[in-house]
Amino acid sequence: MARILVIRLSALGDVAISVPLVKALAEQYPEHEFLMISKAQMAGLFEGCPSNVRFKAAELKDAHKGPWGMFKLYREIGANNVDVICDMHHVIRTRIFCFFFKLHRIPVFCIDKERSERRKLTRRKNKVFKQLKTSFERYRAVFARAGLSLNYFDFWPKMVPSAENLPSVEAEYGQKNTKWLGFAPFARHEGKIYPTNLSEQVLAHFTADARVTVFLFGGGKEELDQMKKWKEKYPTLILQGGKSLQDEVKLMSCLDLMFAMDSANMHLGSLAHTPVISVWGATHKFAGFYGLFQSERNIVQSNIECRPCSVFGNKPCFRGDYACMNQISPVTIIQRIQKEIGL
Asked: Per residue, what are the HEC states of 17-55?
């Protein structure tokens, strides 16, 4: 038996990608124990994993803040309780954390982020357009180097959708006698956000369609404030906020379709086995962050020559107008949603 420590502290979408992989590996290797370390709010994502998966919360803003906090986290786990470390984040925090285990000669396997290839993809001129490895493949490679290969034939069937959540969801929201559409036009960075005025045009169209029930998803204060404004304007909307991640994924699993950005909600929709129409601006799927097993036909994007200009969408637009998003017509999105949802 091996005790495998897996670390991925953030962000939400990146942690979500790891869930089906950790679950499949735990089922394929029941003789091993897996300890997943991430932020406390991610714990709900790992509920339902096999019994040989445990979760340890990293309190990065409190007890485990800074280098001393990483040392404290290391002491809480104990080098005697770890045989192998799979670092799927590989940032300064995790390097410090893993260093303490390396002093005990515990092997550490780290993710390859293909940084040089990302720079070529996002540079201003002479971009190199090619598909880089997906986050899932990068994670999978870390485990493979640790001696834990994943059998795709065992993994793929685990992504089949299940209707087991529908009865409890219907008990809360009423019988599903319309098409259920999740609407999440938010992201962390401006380069990945479809403009609010354009998003509202899409929203207004589907709230006026009696065949569709629209659920709003968002988490930050600004997002909740915007959703409340939309709720006042379009009373038929169902507002999601303050729910646990587990409850959100549960609801998403009952939707017919999600509309999202290149954001955490795209990955949560993928985790729920729900198709996602995703809008891409400053970023591009070639960087490797597309939703797991999502169809490429559900990508909405412009062909403006300066994109992608950023891997994460956090760089300011050098043009100043975010044309990559503003050039996408709400009509294009509406038609794509209608086609996918069957209206």
From this structure: HHHHHHHHHHHHCCCCEEEEEEEHHHHHHHCCCCCCEEE
Under 8 Å between Cβ of 186 and 258: no
pLDDT band for position 219 (cuts 50, 70, 90): confident
* The two three-digit tokens of residue 135, written as one number: 């986050």
Same domain, 121 and 244: no
Q: How far are the Cα atoms of 14, 188, 209 from residue 265, in angstroms, in the given order?
A: 11, 11, 23
Long-range contacts of the stretch 174-178 (C-beta < 8 A, 24+): 176/213, 176/254, 178/210, 178/211, 178/212, 178/213
Q: In what order do the strands lie in the sheet with 33-39?
A: 53-58, 33-39, 3-7, 84-87, 108-110
d(CA 180, CA 172): 14
Instruction: State whether 171 and 155 are in the same domain.
Output: no
Residues 319, 230 share a domain = yes
pLDDT (0 to 100) of residue 213: 97
Alpha-carbon gap, residue 93 to 72, rounded angstroms = 12
More confident of the two residues 340 and 162: 340
Tell which of 104, 125, 159 closes a domain.
159
Global model pTM greater than 0.85: yes
What confidence tier does 153 reach under pLDDT thresholds 50, 70, 90?
Answer: low
